[in-house]
Amino acid sequence: MLTPSQLRCLSKIPTINITSGCFHNCIYCYTKGYSQYPGDGKVILFANTAEKLSEELAKKRKKPQAVYFCPSCDPFQPIPKILDQTYKTMETLLKGGIGVQFVTKAIVPANFITLFARYSNLVCAQVGLTCVDDNIRKIFEPRTANVSEKLSVLQKLVEIGITTGARADPLVYGVMDSDKSLSDLFSAISEAGVKESAISYLFLRPAIRKSLERNIKDEQLLCKLLKPYSEGTTLPIGMKNSQGIALPSQMREEAFERIRNIASDFDVSIHICGCKNSDITTESCHITRPAHRPQAELFT
Ligand code: SF4
């Protein structure tokens, strides 16, 4: 159950996938290029994850400090059987004193909030939010929670004392990053009580490009989105032997500087994803964190 991820940023702690495929079907999803991707519209639930995990933990002499959910899907996909398995699996870990870390674009249901409140020093979260315009969100993430639901998740996680950040990744150049869009985004994040956000721009791989071309019906929008990549740069994307096309370096550097300045107006600090921007930074986007914060840190 506990497998190391090939992604550099996830290499420090073991990871668990609850499903193969993801109900959210974000059109930019990087897993579309994976050999194990089951195809759009298909989700395979690993229904005995919690049970297998218990068996595996019982055999381990050294238990992991924390586990990350999920490198290839969203742990809170709004399907009862998936949520049930995620709950049992996370509960098993937390009861055993093992941290739970996750990124989500979904509603985190009330029973999870109650569970996390009991183990708040063991839980770290990021909520994916790239813009506060639901019409734009729906183009790229047709099935994720809407903007106000995501903001409410952020607020609830902060209220129960969890280390919580936003994740504005992938931003789409020229579509989500006007000064006004970014001000609205960081203002909303800050109002939810969150003071940091990971950021990165969309990168293209063949499967992602095909998905964008297939799903974006507005030709002008598609052209606008793809154009800057014609002068883009090929970069490793934090995974062994894997590359993608990123926006030109100078374009990203200037944009990140502008984003940092806008976010600071709202007291939000920015962490660039170094895995997808290795030509310009070694920063960490804090997708995972050191496990086991002392309880006192909750109040700093
Ligand atoms: S939520 Fe994450 S894993 Fe699921 S489709 Fe969207 S990008 Fe992919």
Could you please describe the fold and organization of this structure?
- By secondary structure, the protein is an alpha/beta fold.
- It has one domain (8-299): pyruvate-formate lyase- activating enzyme, CATH 3.80.30.
- The protein is 34% helix and 16% strand.
- It is built from nine helices and eleven strands.
- The strands form three sheets. Strands 1-4-5-6-7-8-11 form a seven-stranded parallel sheet, covered by helices on one side.
- Helix 1 packs parallel to helix 2 (80-95) and helix 6 crosses helix 9.
- The longest helix is centred in the N-terminal third of the chain and has 16 residues, at 80-95.
- The radius of gyration is 18 Å and the shape is globular.
- It starts with 14 loop residues before the first strand and ends in a 28-residue tail after the last strand.
- The relative contact order is 0.14.
- The structure holds iron/sulfur cluster (SF4).
- Iron/sulfur cluster binds at residues 22, 24-26, 29, 31, 73-74, 105.
